[in-house]
Amino acid sequence: MPCEAVVRQAIEWSLRLQVHPCDTALYEQCQRWRTHAAEHERAWQQVQALTGELSQQFAALPASGLAIEALEQSQQRLHRRQALKLLSSVAVVGSAAWFARDVAPMQQWRADYATGIAQRGSFHLADGTSLQLNTDSAVNHAVGEGRRSITLTRGEILLDTATSQPGEGRSLLQVHSGHGVFETLAGRFVVRRDERQTRLSVIAGEVLVRPMKGQPVQARAGQDYRVSAIQAHLVPDPDMDASAWIDGLIVTRGMRLRDFLAEVARYRRGRVACSDDIADLRLSGVFRLQDTDKLLAVLPRTLPVQVDYRTRWWVTLRRQA
Q1: How far apart are CA 274 and CA 264, in angstroms?
Q2: Is 20 left (phi over 0), alpha (psi -120 to 50) or beta?
Q3: Which of 28, 143, 16, 129 is nearest to 75 (CA)?
Q4: Residue 201 · residue 241 · CB < 8 Å
Q5: What 3-state class would DSSP assign to 205?
Q6: Using CA atoms, how far apart are residues 280 and 246, in angstroms rounded to an integer?
Q7: pTM for this model (two decimals)
Q8: How far is 239 from 316, CA to CA, in rounded Å?
Q9: Residue 205 and residue 97 in one domain
Q10: Residue 115: which of 136, 100, 131, 129 has the closest Cα?
Q11: Domain that holds residue 31
Q12: φ, ψ (nearest 5 deg) of residue 236
């Protein structure tokens, strides 16, 4: 995790670029700072992820448009410290209740690697392991004697250890979630942490699953598991391709509409739901995540539904009239 001084430098660079967005020389200076050290780039990505998350949350607040417009105008004429102070006051006065029930930005801020909503991130760890983060995800990484450890605090990741530490010196990789530990020496797999369970999908290799209070299970390539604190349950016929998000897709096979909409909701701010009378309609296909509004607009072509926008952030699907 970047030290506080480096994070402060990243914030300074971000504010300067916001105040002077057309300054080419300043942009090049920032680029040189980012490439000077891996810690600089990591701090920069964390600051940008949090900035994007805050911007989306401000946009969803009542009367936030006026606040953001005022902030943008002020940034053109205020010193960057004044702009930061104004940003803080908007956050405190306009959205205290909002942030009290949404801790995701703080998790992203404190994490070694993180993404905001609708963002994906790809990283190569020092041991050669490939780490990819899906939307709204956060992880911490540690290396100790004879083991490598990743803690998934939020969201979903894909890990590929195929190119890391070849030979007999390969150390054990452990992935921790709130429900168990997943161990492998070599493998490619997806881990997704939900509120009540962790999902595991093994693409290649083998992964030992250790529920917090249950018996360990060896998961093999092609297998999907749902892991609670007390047991690991094999899912014989998953209704969704667990790794399709790597390519910006949702790929479904007979998936319930309500479950599908819950997936889509992970990639956008606000509420996406459907009425009870169409919740069990089944959906199969390949859907692009680049524009979730376009994705939703496609659904009436294959299902007897209509898409109603109460606001930009409140979408409900109902049976076609």
Answers
A1: 12
A2: beta
A3: 16
A4: no
A5: strand
A6: 27
A7: 0.68
A8: 22
A9: no
A10: 136
A11: 4-110
A12: -70, -35
The domain that holds 207 is classified in CATH as 2.60.120.1440
Alpha helix stretches (DSSP H) within the chain:
4-19, 24-36, 38-59, 64-75, 80-100, 104-110, 257-265, 292-298
CATH number of the domain bearing residue 272: 3.55.50.30
Same domain, 159 and 106: no
Looking at 235, 267, 294, the residue that finishes a domain is: 235
Q: How do 130-133 and 121-124 pair as beta strands?
A: antiparallel
Stretch 264-268: mean pLDDT: 95
H-helix or E-strand containing 314?
Answer: strand 314-319
What residues does 237 pair with on adjacent strands? none
DSSP class of residue 170 equals P
Strand partners, 251: 286
Mean residue pLDDT of the chain comes to 81
Mean pLDDT in residue range 3-30 = 77
Pairing of strands 180-184, 187-193: unpaired
Confidence of residue 216 (pLDDT cuts 50, 70, 90): very high
Domain count, the chain: 3
**Residue linked to tokens 């670029």:** 17
Please state which of the ranges 104-113, 131-140, 301-310 shows the lowest mean pLDDT: 104-113
In this structure, the answer to whether residues 146 and 95 fall within a common structural domain is: no
Dist. CA 286–CA 144, nearest whole Å = 41
227: left (phi over 0), alpha (psi -120 to 50) or beta: beta
Q: Please write the tens of the pLDDT for every residue from 153-212.
A: 999 999 998 755 555 556 789 999 989 999 999 999 999 999 899 999 999 999 999 999
